[in-house]
Structures are given as structure tokens and as C-alpha cells.
């Protein structure tokens, strides 16, 4: 079930990527 898990991870990635890291 590595494929389904990867897809789910990708779906959870967008929201996380939306928030840029505080690199000052």
C-alpha cells in the first residue's frame, strides 16, 4: 500500500507547502 500512502502524503503536502518557512 505504498502507492496509496504516497498519494495521500502528496495531498497533505500542498497545504504544508502553502506555508513558507520563516527564513529571515
Overview of the molecule:
- With 24 residues, the chain is mainly α.
- Helix content is 71%, strand content 0%.
- It has 1 helix and no strands.
- The termini are far apart.
- The model has no long low-confidence stretch (mean pLDDT 65).
Q: Nutshell version of this structure?
A:
The chain is mainly alpha-helical. Helices cover 71% and strands 0% of the residues.
Radius of gyration: 12 Å
Structural class call reads mainly alpha
Order of helices and strands: H
Shape annotation: elongated
Poorly predicted regions are none
Fraction of residues in H or I helices: over 70%
Q: Please report the number of helical segments.
A: 1
**Quantity of strands, as a count:** 0
- The percentage of residues in β strands lies in under 5%
Largest beta-sheet details:
none
Distance between the termini: 39 Å
What's the pLDDT, averaged over the residues? 65
Protein name: Pre-rRNA-processing PNO1
What keyword list fits this structure?
mainly alpha, single chain, 24 residues, Pre-rRNA-processing PNO1
List the helices and strands and how they pair.
Layout: H1 2-18
